[in-house]
Structure to design on (690 residues):
């Protein structure tokens, strides 16, 4: 082990002096006794920047799931290597490469931002590594770019949006406006809503509004929404953007007139900041407050005990990512060379998630219930199941 | 009035309001840059500090105005300390040193923010007195607090104009701007002047963060977005020109709103405008020739 540690120290020093390129000349130290060597898990998440809180919750819950099962993967000790991706897509390829080339990780886990996820997808595909995805919903990761090595424990951007479209149509709404940031995730989300809503019959999408991402000056588009006067507005924003949008929507006097619906991110982790303006909002997601299942209660208590913070959907996703990896590695007793068996085991796993049990589709994306939730006080209260066992269409995935 | 006309008017109002808020941040930046020759990349971070101060103080005091009264001296003091400890040793140095230092300052302030307030998103309620909208047509209305923001920004712009044009302090600032060496050889205390200008710039940015908080959200990294667009304002208006910053801010606000409405270069329109200005008038609209 000390050899390994020395190598890392040398590498760190090299990186610090800017001679990162030289790192390539060091041969990876693969121990002959493969089974008992530590398994290197490379975690890449945002620990700073807009999505810092999400990254932290995912990391803590991921480790919680592993620690609950003895802190090992298939009997092997774990060495965690952590990279802060800052949710910055331009830095994505370099950061992903740190895990692959510098740290020579065995398994990659991450991340939150869809743009950064694409860099990890590429790095994992190029280097034939297992990639566990705990949040980013970019459709392509389990569609045209799907890969036997990729596993997602969250959602595709299409999924919660499709559920919201179903809800809006079933509530008798006829004319909809969709609004989101002008970037891939935003368009995938509004597309999912449109799929379900316009497919319902007698419904029209009046207008699609896109705001330059990541700008949050909504006034111009809100004024336009007011003058279009649709029955329902579907909005895809998260974090700071979600807070501002929901507040501005209420301040513009739209909340009482035009119902607002969105995927859960619109009101998740933001309710304290949104305050009065979010009360009564309906959103759809694969997780909710007040789910009546013992696994959820146990998880929330354990997460609170381990971190002192309250669990949220991101923690749940991180936890399930950990659970899935534990199950897969247990099935092959930690032998990563038994790749086929490892993949087959994870495909077969039914994950006992706090959100409710779920399995993975052939494209390795969750097939799961989507809940309709309503904001009551500081909670996204469970109302009903909006769509049962919803699977992403996985268009273009060769695994199907 | 027809609905269409009201729609257009509201959009103009939206642009003006955004522009005025931008002016508060950019005016400090342009003063510090133009008069002191200091590129302060951390300027946006003080916008963020203002927002977080207003959030934290109003959470305990329950009143936004009161918390601004308390937060403003804190921001001013912070500006004085940063100037004395970090910026002053760099006046004589190359811009590169200032860029490095103030970039480092962004990281340090961001980390302090994370330690003090965590990484969650926060918000502050609109003061009850102004928490309503004026109905203009059956569909359109305008939130009053946004009008209040515009009014405050306009008053400050007016105050700045008065100070710079009509007071002794303003005269020294103008003197320092047009010829630093001549001004100091005539007995103007440049060190003192720099201190005032820097602290005032910081306070303006922080104040913008404070009054924007009820219509914005408070989140990690919020200062960086406003910093970039503020630099665009400074470049378009001309470095060091308050009048330029004022016109450029309004211009950017309007361009931003209408480029979104007509989906014509949304998001990039302000930068295209900057490129055009740089091509046709490299010194900016009201800048002096280098």
């Amino acid at each position: 082990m000390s050899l390994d540690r020395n190598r890392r120290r040398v590498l760190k020093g090299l990186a610090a002096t800017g001679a990162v390129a030289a790192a390539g000349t060091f041969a990876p130290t693969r121990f002959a006794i493969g089974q008992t060597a530590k398994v290197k898990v490379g975690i890449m998440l945002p620990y700073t920047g807009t999505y810092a809180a999400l990254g932290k919750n995912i990391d803590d819950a991921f480790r919680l799931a592993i620690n609950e099962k003895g802190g090992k993967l298939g009997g092997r000790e774990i060495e965690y290597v952590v990279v802060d991706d800052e949710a910055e897509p331009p830095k994505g390829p370099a950061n992903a490469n740190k895990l692959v080339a510098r740290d020579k990780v065995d398994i990659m886990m991450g991340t939150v931002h869809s743009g950064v996820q694409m860099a990890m997808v590429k790095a994992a595909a190029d280097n034939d590594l297992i990639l566990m995805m705990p949040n980013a919903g970019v459709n392509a990761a389990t569609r045209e770019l799907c890969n036997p090595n990729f596993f997602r424990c969250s959602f595709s951007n299409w999924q919660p949006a499709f559920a919201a479209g179903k809800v809006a149509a079933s509530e008798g709404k006829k004319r909809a406006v969709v609004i989101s940031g002008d970037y891939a995730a935003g368009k995938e989300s509004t597309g999912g809503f449109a799929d379900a809503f316009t497919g319902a019959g007698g419904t029209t999408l009046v207008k699609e509004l896109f705001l330059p991402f990541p700008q949050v000056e909504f006034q111009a588009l809100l004024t336009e929404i007011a003058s279009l006067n649709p029955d329902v507005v579907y909005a895809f924003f998260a974090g700071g953007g979600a807070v501002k949008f929901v507040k501005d929507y209420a301040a513009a006097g739209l909340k009482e007139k035009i119902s607002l619906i969105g995927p859960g991110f619109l009101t998740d982790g933001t309710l304290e900041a949104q305050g009065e303006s979010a009360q009564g909002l309906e959103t759809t997601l694969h997780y909710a407050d007040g789910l009546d299942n013992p696994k959820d209660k146990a998880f929330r208590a354990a997460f609170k005990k381990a971190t002192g913070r309250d669990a949220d959907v991101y923690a749940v996703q991180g936890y399930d990512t950990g659970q899935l990896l534990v199950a897969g590695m247990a099935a092959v007793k930690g032998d990563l060379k038994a790749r086929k068996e490892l993949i087959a085991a994870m495909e077969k796993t039914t994950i006992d998630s706090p959100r409710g049990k779920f399995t993975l589709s052939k494209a390795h994306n969750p097939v799961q219930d989507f809940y309709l939730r309503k904001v009551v006080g500081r909670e996204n209260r469970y109302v009903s199941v909006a769509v049962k066992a919803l699977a992403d269409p996985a268009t273009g995935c060769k695994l199907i | 009035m027809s609905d269409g006309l009201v729609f257009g008017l509201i959009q103009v109002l939206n642009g003006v309001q955004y522009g005025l808020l931008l002016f508060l941040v950019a005016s400090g930046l342009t003063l510090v840059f133009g008069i002191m020759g200091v590129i302060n990349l951390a300027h946006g971070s003080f916008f963020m500090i203002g927002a977080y101060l207003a959030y934290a103080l109003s959470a305990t005091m329950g009143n936004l105005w009161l918390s601004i009264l308390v937060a403003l001296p804190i921001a001013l003091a912070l500006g004085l300390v940063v100037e004395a400890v970090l910026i002053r040793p760099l006046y004589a140095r190359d811009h590169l040193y200032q860029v490095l230092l103030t970039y480092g300052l962004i990281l340090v302030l961001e980390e302090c923010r994370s330690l003090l307030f965590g990484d969650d998103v926060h918000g502050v309620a609109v003061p009850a007195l102004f928490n309503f909208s004026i109905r203009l047509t059956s569909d359109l209305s305008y939130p009053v607090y946004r009008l209040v923001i515009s009014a405050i920004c306009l008053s400050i712009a007016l105050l700045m104009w008065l100070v710079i044009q009509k007071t002794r302090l303003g005269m020294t600032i103008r003197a320092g701007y047009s010829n630093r060496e001549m001004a100091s050889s005539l007995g103007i205390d440049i060190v003192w002047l720099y201190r005032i200008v820097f602290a005032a710039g910081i306070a303006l940015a922080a104040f913008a963060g404070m009054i924007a908080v009820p219509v914005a959200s408070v989140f990690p990294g919020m200062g960086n977005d406003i910093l970039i667009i503020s630099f665009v304002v400074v470049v378009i208006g001309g470095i060091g020109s308050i009048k330029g910053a004022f016109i450029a801010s309004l211009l950017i606000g309007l361009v931003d709103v209408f480029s979104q409405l007509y989906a014509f270069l949304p998001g990039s329109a302000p930068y295209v405008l900057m490129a055009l200005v740089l091509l046709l008038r490299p010194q900016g609209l009201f800048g002096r020739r280098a």
